[in-house]
Amino acid sequence: MIANVLLYKVTLLVYFVATILYLVDVIARREKAGQIGRWVLVGGFALHCVTLLVRYLQTGHIPIATLPESLSFFSLLIIGIFLLFDLKHHLTILGAFSCPLALGMMIIGAATSAPEPTINPALDSWWFPVHVTLAFLGYAVFALSFVAGLMYLLQERMLKSKKFSGLYFRLPSLETLDHINYQCLSFGFPLMTMGIISGAMWANSAWGGYWRWDPKETWALITWFLYAALLHGRLTIGWRGRRAAIFAIIGFLCLLFSFLGVNFLLSDVHSFKAMRGQ
Amino acid sequence: MNIIVVGLSHKTAPVEIRERVAFAPTAMERPLHECQALPAIIEGMIVSTCNRVEFYATTRDPDAAIVQLRRFMANYHSLTLEELEQHLYDYQGEEAIRHVFRVSSSLDSMVIGEPQILGQIKTAYGYATEFKTVGLILNRFMHKAFSVAKRIRTETNIAGNAVSVSFAAVELARKIFGTLENKTVLLIGAGEMCELAARHFINNGVSKVLVTNRTFARAEKLAAEFQGFPVAFDEFPNQLHQVDIVLTSTGAPNFILEKPKVEEVLKLRKNKPMFFIDIAVPRDIDPKVNKLENIYLYDVDDLQGVVQANLKERHKEAKKAEAIIDQEIGQFHIWLATLEVKPTIVALRQKLEEIRRGELEKSLKYLKGLGDKERKSVESLTAAIINKIMHLPISTLKQAQHDSSEDSYVDAVRTLFGLETTAAADDLPPLDEELE
């Protein structure tokens, strides 16, 4: 147990260092810092995987049953997907935006304590890891499109107003950011769809009903419709650029709300309490 | 040995002075030889561009050399020293090294990061080598300056962002479109700046150029030049939907493109972004067009603003460059210091003494039967041999101190006996590096 907490803290520290390095690169223009930051981040990612693996071996379930666990899992996926994108696009600045996001999740995770999960036997089926992994992969992809959306709006603002801050010189082209938006959508949307379907299957196997309209399900559906609208708009009527960026940002905020807000504000079967059968 | 700089530049002298003291590139032999003939000057070279005229020289008496160079410059161009003096600056020692590194790295240029100055200094150095007015120190010094400039160019973004209006347009297009491949440019009207920008676009990958003009023949002519396609002036609005970048500079008194038309085009393009560059005064495109989503409209003033922002960015990069120069000065200074006679003699003595001791110890191991007295005589024998061998080289070195051959002797001794132990010396570029 202690080993696990220690691993988590070290991972957090490594992410912190990577975040600082990325920010130094972007703000103080030290390209070396970003290059080192990338490797630190890869190290942190590997360490994070080990942390989760150790946790899995200790508890015997996929470590996404409590809020801190799922926050940690979420940030792991954000980092992982960022690193994948980085392979192709080499966007240090994307790291400077994504790392703080993942780091923030890790810190919230460290700050919220959770009792040891004892999973409600009714819910303990293999649908559980499938549903949660798919959903979180979708979340992480959308997190990246959220980040790209923010960058797009910043860049577009500067190009339109013709006032350039130092950031302008570090941001990638609008086309690249819009392309990331589209790529994220075309991966995230199927993932999210499968996440919702697998959730329904799980619900059916646990409670004998596919859909119960609990707040989380409702919010997930709202979010799903948002992304569906964006995908449709993109493919048929040429929605792109600013509008797509705004959609990606609103979509992710809805996602965050259905992930965190619903847990904190509303109580239902999806809260982590329900997980423990309370 | 001291390096000195005497000269003037756009920062200290107006063009009326600069043009009077410039040296013609076709007649460098006389000034170079006359300059080197000055009593305090050992090696010398002259950099003369439209923005600066500078002497780089080595001397043993910097103050006297500076006075002589100032007077030489005034006399040579038939000016009085009083006229010239207020515009002249001079540097010696570390400051001189810094100045030359800064100049060759384009940190002292009117437009920071401009690439010409390095070439101009290389040319100036070329004349000096041709007429043999540079020797060991300036050779090394110049090569060092070139490598510092190269390092700064690769390690900082000092030449990174466009500082001309036409190139700024290309960079903006890149910020919008990413790559310019498969993009189409439409040229409306003609004009020098417009054509220059079009050329930049073509050089940067734009695949298709359309040209339109009120006079169709001119459109055809320009299109042929760019290997593009002429379009009749009335026809161009119907082609707009396939165009990504519009460059316009007509003499039209009114807007030739307004918001409703662009809106229509945008719908046809499924909102694919468009970049309008309006170089005309009065403007050709209604500024309201910029309010449309996915449309970016820049007029001449906007482009000037971009250039200003880019210049600011270069100034920031220049700070990094200064740090690199600080580093390099240290290294070069160390090398320069090793060229002094006294430390060289000390180093030479030490080196030979080391060898003597080493060999003596080795041999004494086998000569165990020796008594104290014999041992002592073996020692003094070896010491005497070393002293005899060293006598002539050292007295030659000491003598060389008083004439211009000092550096070459010192350098030779250091090389022959392997005395260059400082790391800095290893970093110096080889002398036979080719001039680019």
Overview of this protein structure:
The complex is a heterodimer of chains A (278) and B (436). Chain A is mainly α and 278 residues long. Helix content of chain A is 79%, strand content 0%. Chain A has helices at 2-28, 31-59, 67-89, 92-111, 127-161, 174-207, 215-237, 241-265, 272-275. Chain B is an alpha/beta fold and 436 residues long. Chain B has three domains: 2-155, Beta Polymerase, domain 2; 165-307, NAD(P)-binding Rossmann-like Domain (Rossmann fold, 3-Layer(aba) Sandwich), CATH 3.40.50.720; 339-427, no CATH class. Chain B has helices at residues 15-21, 29-37, 62-76, 81-85, 94-104, 116-130, 136-155, 165-177, 192-203, 216-225, 236-239, 259-268, 300-338, 341-366, 372-400, 406-416, 423-427; strands spanning 2-9, 41-48, 52-59, 89-92, 184-188, 208-213, 229-232, 245-248, 274-278, 295-299. In chain B, the strands form two sheets. Chain B has a six-stranded parallel β-sheet with strand order 7-6-5-8-9-10. Chain B has a four-stranded antiparallel β-sheet with strand order 2-3-1-4, sandwiched between helices. Chain B is elongated, with a radius of gyration of 32 Å. The chains are: A mainly alpha (278), B alpha/beta (436). Chain A binds chain B through residues 29, 155, 159-160, 162, 164, 166, 168-169, 171-176, 179, 237-243, and chain B through 157, 160-161, 172, 174-179, 269-273, 290, 293-294, 296, 298, 302, 305-306, 309, 313, 316-317, 320.
Short overview:
The complex is a heterodimer of chains A (278) and B (436). Chain A is an all-alpha fold.
Number of helices of chain B: 17
Structural class of chain B: alpha/beta
How many helices of chain A does DSSP assign?
9
Helix content of chain B: 55-70%
The CATH architecture of the largest domain in chain B can be named as 2-Layer Sandwich
Q: Structural class, from secondary structure content of chain A?
A: mainly alpha
Count of extended strands of chain B: 10
Low-confidence stretches of chain A: none
- What assembly state would you assign to the polypeptide chains in this entry? heterodimer
- CA-atom Rg of chain A in angstroms: 19 Å
